[in-house]
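Collaborator request, handled under Task 6.
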Amino acid sequence: MAIELSGIKQQSEQSNQVDVIPNRLRALMQKKPDVQDRIFFTEQLALMLETGMALHEALRAFCTLDIKPGLNRIIRSLMSDVEEGRTFSAALSKHAGFFSMAYVNLVAAAEQGGFLDRVLNELKEMDEKREKLKSTVVSAMVYPAFLILFSFGVVVFVLVFVFPKFADLFARISDDLPGSTKVLMAASHALINYWWLFIGVTLVLLIAGHYWLKTARGIETMDRLKLSVVMIRDIFVQLYLVQSMRLMAMSIANGVSVMDTLEACREVVRNNVFNRFIAQLQVNVEQGAGFSIGFEQADFIPATVKQMIKTGDDTGKLPQVMVRVADYYERELEKKLALFARMVEPVMLLVMGAVVGLIVSSLILPIFKLSRAVA
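Structure tokens returned to the collaborator:
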């Protein structure tokens, strides 16, 4: 009997150990809540509040849904804080990684004004538009990146697997080989014999570049390039204007203080040069100069935007003007990105054609010379 109990105990311990491993793997595989989770939470909470449900009841109802464990923990924390008497905005501020400063400020203003459900719907729409714009930017960059990688892969394949087959043949007429053939043969020889060096140097450069881009100097350099290089300056200026104008319009219209609004903009826009422009706006507002002065002093801001902001500042309709600016430049940015994608395709095809033509000519011309010599 003791032997049987011992065996059962061992089986139980083994089964517990087996259960622990999948649980750990499951915990590792669970993703953190993302923007789509925030959109879902905001939309559903707004819907519950519109039906007349109290805030703490709506949060409690959320906890019964089948959602990500990370989101569930955040909602349980919010529910606990609200039930303890804290304001909803104060509860949100404890989860800064999930709820931005702008989100918290807008909720705080909505709590004071009694229009939380309306602001939540506006926050949901703002997140959706931001994600749509982000998806448009990524889509415009994916195809050119694929063509570049594909071209590079073709060149490496030809140099490693095709050119070596002609090495002995070309050795007979090494003095008469075209310059391009000699260069490609040398590159082929280097890749085959020193591939480890190429991989090592590439990895070192990638790692060094990655860490340099995280330094203050690297970040500053890239931020300046985004707003100075002719080909990409307009895209980034329009992107930053869409992000900042929409947030400013929404915040000011809902009663958030101008200083809090501008501080939240610095969190949304990830560019030091643009953020210094925002900081100058804060200084101007503190000194009572208004918005338009700061916009007029910024070189990268389009003249049309400067005029519209000045008009909105003078007439007291700044939020409405900012919404118009954001909507206009969002449409313009989508058009520009679509045009960029259409222009990149033929350019990349021409580049690929030139590379293929160079490789083919470097192979065929020596063969013609060899055939004429034999004849």
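The cover message to the collaborator said: "The two ends are 97 Å apart (CA to CA). The chain has a mean pLDDT of 83. Please let us know whether this matches your experimental observations."
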